[in-house]
Design brief:
The structure holds three protein chains of three kinds. By secondary structure, chain B is mainly α. Chain B is built from six helices and no strands. Chain B has a single domain, classed as Cytochrome c oxidase, subunit III, four-helix bundle (Four Helix Bundle (Hemerythrin (Met), subunit A)), CATH 1.20.120.80. Chain C is mainly alpha-helical. Classes of the chains: A mainly alpha, B mainly alpha, C mainly alpha.
């Protein structure tokens, strides 16, 4: 392999990115050195096992990946804005839509949601951390290394270009010989390990670490959705692990799982990919439902309508989510019986989802609604998501799907599901929990700009795509002729994308503005909210709760506020046990990254040698008997005084 | 339960209970992982692409020996936990070492079985059937090999520290893993070998 | 939950002999009977499930500890998933296009 195969060359856009990346990296190193922050970074962030800090790092990574995936999206919109533009060539366009899909689903939506879960769940159930704090740090770092490995593909070696679904035989060695799809197989595998570990960690946390008295049916709705989401993660991610392992074996070692020759079966890939891929949709959308439930209930000043039916519908969705995967490939040539059964299961899953919509509407009914930013996102979600849901039922009918399959109609449909269902929720969650995370609110006025630009931009971008889709435009077309008549609608869609981008810019400006100027005096409960995370300081002390709360009902904190039971007695404070920081998660993740990088380039000897690092990490971990440390009563007292004033 | 039937050491403390539960949930994920491997093997089973079939390849005697080695190791592993719960450090370690030796015997037999197949012209690259076969068996074999390394580390820790709530929990979790691999093997034996030989 | 701690580990010995016996029985079924292939598969499949149950209940003590119920739900759900994955994949990939 020569250097110009190693570094991607010859494209001015990519050259500019390479220079920008190099400058940013040098700039960051210089900045941190100049500010003398290396030790701080290492102690407070790189080795931390605190769920709140890990959550914040997830969210930060998610925002950066949103930017990256968004730029990919803008490039696609620019290319198709006019007929026969030559902004991107076919190859470059293929790479861009592939990385856009992978990054938005796996490296934007997932970390955003897992990040918010990390920050909120232990606080919401009255716990001091997750069940396995060190494993949690490993989850984050492994995810982060996987994401970075995937992201460097466009400057080193070349990006994957077979679509985010990477269908065989196209994604096989025969038709995609470069290293691009090796990046896909290996980076996703590494990040997937982290996600699986998160799944196990949060199930145990929620089942075993709830505050005394908080039975399952007294859990906040976001905790419920998080529990079910993590169950789906544990159920679905091993399938992806196997599918990606087969892909790696096929591409690197010449096996015949998905090849056309020698008895492989390309359709096996579709089957396995969607066996994971469909539950994945619910993995990203269920926690979002939980966030909307919290926000809508808080700002309607009412408890959630139909709590039990909500729980039942979440569990129902989790169950059905494993039984609908064929609707992604009705046109593959399945037998009539297969398509019929999966049509029925797919339509059935709309029922529990519909139940939720009505629960939210009835929660708002006769409520004293406060139109905060978080609430606005929740309100916009309902109609937009319903459009996504209704078009989903259209696609669910196998016979009709033969017309819609792989058209822009489908692309519009899933953007109408995922953007309101995930991105709006993440924004609602960020505005809602921001003061809890950082001790200051995001500015509501700039927030309105963010909201209106984003929501209008979203609809202008994706609504036209339904129509060009029905008019026959298939997805992933890099250009089209003027005679198709799609030009005006796609041009409108491109303008929408610019408005969308302006909305994102408004969010970034809001974060900057609020960080500089927002009032730091928000108290522990700025929204007059209902759940336990608001019972402690903002931002919470590293031990979360000086005294573990006791719960006897749903929304205990809200009921206590109404009854006037607040505050902390001095004699209630005891010594608190906390886990120690650890550098092994970061070490392990970097080792995975190095091995992965060598495997991408099929340099097997260096890969085998660096795999020793992983083994060393495992051994170190096995011999680690660190039991954590204790926070003294005096320290707790002092910290609590700072935000409570005097103790009783 | 009467008062004298004390909780085994490995269940003492919140962290231990959570670790054991977490491992059970991980085993749930492992069930999904292996069933995906099985499903793919079943789909590709008849796609021999002109290469050798299972009926031509599989050797009952060797496979039976492997099965008995693994079944016995699962038994001795159970005995190790029994002794550990009786507080008997020396016997626990002895049974763990016997388990490891049986496991090593299994891995040795499996590797020589694979080498034999390769000499017969049946490699992982020959056909869809053999890709599925070697990957399913290889994943199981890799799990056993990892288990051997893991239990070795735990034996060292138990020798150094004796039976404490932490070492007991670690050994107990490893024993769950070991029994689970035996379960997987039973299905491989039945649905790959016996089915293939019919 | 801790019965059989002390003394002879009967539980394990019985489990061990059962698993050996079931294995041999399965081999005999395959080697020395003339039942149809599907009958034999049904019988030895049942034997395999029995053996798995022996491991789970007699060796792994799935029901012990405070999380026994959770463990049962967890494993039942995993087995459900396993059936969906195996049966679903075979059904989808060996009917329709593959049948022609």
């Amino acid at each position: 392999m020569t250097w110009d195969q190693f570094f991607v060359t010859g494209d001015p856009l990519i050259l500019a990115s390479q220079i920008a990346i190099a400058l940013t990296m040098v700039g960051l190193v210089v900045l941190v050195t100049y500010l003398k922050r290396w030790k701080w970074l290492w102690k407070e962030w790189f080795t931390t096992v605190d769920h709140k800090k890990i959550g914040i790092m997830y969210i930060l990574a998610g925002v950066v990946m949103f930017f990256r995936g968004g730029v990919d999206g803008l490039m696609m919109k620019a290319q198709t804005s006019r007929p026969e533009l030559e902004f991107l060539d076919a190859q470059h366009y293929d790479e861009v839509f592939t990385t856009h899909g992978v990054i938005m689903i796996l490296f934007m939506a997932m970390p955003m949601l897992i990040g918010i879960m990390n920050v909120v769940i232990p606080l919401q159930i009255g716990a001091r951390d997750v069940a396995f704090p060190k494993l949690n740090a490993l989850s984050f770092w492994v995810f982060f290394v996987g994401a970075m490995l995937f992201n460097i593909s466009f400057v080193i070696g070349g990006s994957p270009d077979a679509g985010w679904t990477a269908y065989f035989p196209l994604a096989g060695k025969e038709f995609t010989p470069g290293v691009g799809n090796n990046y896909y197989a290996i980076a996703l595998q590494i990040a997937g390990i982290g996600t699986l570990a998160t799944g196990v960690n949060f199930i145990v946390t929620i089942l075993k670490m709830r505050a005394p008295g908080m039975t399952l049916m007294k859990m906040p709705m976001f905790t419920w959705t998080a529990l079910v989401t993590n169950v789906i993660i544990v159920a679905a991610f091993p399938i992806l692990t196997v599918a990606l392992a087969f892909m790696t074996l096929d591409r690197l070692f010449g096996t015949h799982f998905f090849t056309v020759a020698a008895g492989g079966d390309p359709m096996l890939w579709l089957n396995l990919f969607w066996l994971w891929g469909h539950p994945e949709v619910y993995i990203v959308v269920l926690p979002a439902f939980g966030m909307f439930s919290e926000v809508i209930s808080t700002f309607s000043r009412k408890n959630l309508y139909g709590y039990k039916s909500m729980v039942a519908s979440i569990v129902g969705i989790a169950f059905l989510s494993m039984l609908v995967w064929v609707h992604h490939f009705y046109t593959m040539g399945n037998s009539g019986a297969v398509n019929s059964v999966f049509s029925i299961t797919t339509m059935a899953i709309a029922i529990p989802t519909g139940v939720k919509i009505f629960n939210w509407l009835f929660t708002m009914r006769k409520g004293r609604i406060k139109f905060t930013n978080a609430m606005l996102w929740s309100l916009a979600f309902i109609p937009c998501f319903t459009i996504g849901g209704v078009t989903g039922v259209m696609l669910a009918m196998a016979a009709a799907d033969y017309q819609y399959h792989n058209t822009m109609f489908l692309v519009a449909h899933f953007h109408y599901v995922l953007i309101p269902g995930v991105v709006f929720a993440v924004f609602a969650g960020l505005y809602y929990w921001w003061p809890k995370m950082f001790g200051f609110k995001l500015n509501e006025k700039i927030g309105y700009w963010h909201f209106w630009l984003f929501v209008i931009g979203f609809n202008v971008t994706f609504m036209p795509m339904f129509f060009v889709g029905l008019d026959g435009m298939s997805r992933r077309m890099f250009t089209y002729s003027a005679s198709t008549g799609w030009g005006p609608l796609l041009g409108l869609s491109a303008i929408g994308a610019l408005i969308l981008a302006a909305g994102f810019a408004a969010l970034c400006y809001n974060i900057y503005w609020s960080f500089r100027y927002a009032s730091r005096d928000v108290g522990n409960d700025p929204w007059d909210a209902r759940t336990l995370e608001w019972a402690t300081a903002s931002p919470p002390p590293h031990y979360n709760f000086a005294k573990v709360p006791e719960v006897s009902q749903l929304d205990e904190f809200w009921e206590n506020k109404k009854a006037g039971i607040t505050g902390l007695k001095k004699n209630e404070i005891e010594e608190i046990h906390m886990p120690s920081n650890s550098w092994t998660p970061l070490f392990m993740a970097v080792a995975f990254g190095i091995v992965g990088f060598f495997l991408v380039f099929e340099w097997f000897i260096p890969a085998a040698i660096s795999a020793v690092l992983i083994v060393i990490g495992l051994i170190l971990n096995s011999f680690d008997y660190d039991h954590g440390y204790h926070v003294s009563v005096e320290e707790v007292e002092e910290t609590e005084r700072k935000w409570r004033g005097d103790l009783k | 339960m009467s008062s004298q039937s004390t909780t085994p050491l490995e269940y003492q403390g919140q962290q231990n209970q959570m670790t054991i539960l977490g491992f059970w949930i991980f085993l749930g994920a492992e069930i999904v992982l292996f069933s995906t491997l099985f499903a793919s093997y079943f789909v590709l089973e008849h796609n021999t692409a002109g290469g050798p079939t299972g009926e031509e390849l599989f050797m009952l005697k060797e496979v039976l020996i492997e099965t008995f080695l693994l079944l016995t190791s699962s038994f001795t592993c159970g005995l190790a936990i029994h002794e550990m719960r009786n507080g008997n450090k020396r016997d626990t370690i002895v049974w763990l070492i016997v388990t490891l030796l049986l496991g090593l015997g299994f891995v040795y037999m499996e590797i020589s079985e694979f080498i034999h197949y390769v000499h017969e012209g049946a490699t992982i690259q020959t056909s869809g059937f053999l890709s599925g076969f070697f990957t399913l068996l290889g994943t199981h074999g890799l799990h056993v090999s990892l288990g051997i390394g893991w239990v070795t580390l735990l034996i060292i820790q138990m020798m150094k520290r004796g039976i404490t709530p932490v070492t007991a929990r670690k050994v107990f979790v490893a024993s769950l893993y070991w029994h689970f691999l035996d379960v997987v093997w039973i299905f491989i034996f039945t649905f790959v070998y016996l089915k293939g030989m019919m | 939950m801790s019965k059989g701690h002390k003394g002879f580990p009967w539980n394990h010995v019985i489990g061990f002999f059962l698993s050996i016996a079931l294995t041999i029985f399965a081999v005999l079924m395959v080697q020395y009977t003339d039942f149809s292939k599907s009958t034999v598969m049904f019988i030895i499949g049942t034997l395999a499930i029995l053996q798995a149950a022996i491991q789970l209940f007699m060796f792994m003590h799935i029901t012990e500890g405070k999380s026994g119920v959770i463990n049962i739900i967890n494993i039942t759900y995993s087995v459900f998933l396993a059936v969906v994955i195996v049966v679903g994949s075979i059904w989808i990939l060996t009917t329709g296009h593959a049948a022609h």
